[in-house]
Amino acid sequence: MKNFFRNELDINPGGGDTIDLYGSDDEEVDNVPSDRELTNASGEEQKTDEFAKCIANEALCFEIVFNDKSKKWSSKMKVPSELIRFVIGARGAMKNKLEKETGCRILFLMQIVEIFDVTNKGLYFVEIFSKSEKGVKRCKDRIELILMDARNKAPYTHFVSFSAAVSDIQNSFNEFTKQVINDEELPESCRCKELFQDPKKLHFTVVMLSLLDSSYRKAAGRLLETLVRTKIRNILNDKPLDVEVHGLEYMNDDPTNVNVLYAQGKSDLLQSVADEIAKGMKEGGLARQRDDRVKLHLTLMNTRYAVTI
């Protein structure tokens, strides 16, 4: 299968049913603009990195304040409900350790939030109190390290992608599907139509994300918009993307046990754009740190598509 498609930059939510560029499953992207202005990065590329650090975790943006009445320092952090157990620990062991070693008192308050008109598990607000400002800062830093480690182990929930659902590619993909299904020399298990991607959902995955609550989802959307405005447009320089799609490859090293079959994508410009987006998401703390470049691939077949529950 060999095709070219010419298209402007398109950050597409994707279909939520492809193997990702690093070999993990992915879900639908939710590009929701942030409802909180963490910083003003519009039009200023030099502020992008600072913006990314802040937007990646709102916990970093809560100030440490002094209460004249209680004579204590305090600060708050937002922790996704999925990660709160790492801060509390088994039978409160981690919480007790943090309090003892930093001289702070830690309180937890759960907030129920509405996401897409459905009640979510919500967020935990972690409030830290101490007679020492340094103690509060040290406690926040410790909790942030715990969260970073937990997030690196969390499952992927979203991804950023470029849509490849254009007529030339779709037509070639449909022809490829037809040839495989009608090839009687292939095993029956390889000719199941459910194995093939939906033509409307063909896409190039750019980077996988672990967005565990609404604030992270909004932060990812906001950061993506900032990256496009401050960096991606400069790379494109008003030039359209030319991408050559050809060749068949599989994800693992064992040709007798293949779960994912994909076509290769070749484009220096698209590669630069994809690498810049992945880099920005990693620096923003929303994607796992990897040094390798984005593997431009177009998933054609995936055994997971045929799995029924």
UniProtKB/TrEMBL annotation:
GO biological process: DNA alkylation repair; regulation of DNA-templated transcription
Top-level taxon of the source organism: Eukaryota
GO molecular function, one term: RNA binding
Keyword Transport: no
InterPro entries (alphabetical): AKAP7-like_phosphoesterase, ASCC1, KH_dom, KH_dom_type_1, KH_dom_type_1_sf
Biased composition (Basic and acidic residues): 33-45
Domain K Homology: 71-148
Pfam families registered for this protein in UniProt: AKAP7_NLS (PF10469), KH_1 (PF00013)
Protein name: KH domain-containing protein
GO cellular component, one term: nucleus
PANTHER family from the UniProt entry: ACTIVATING SIGNAL COINTEGRATOR 1 COMPLEX SUBUNIT 1
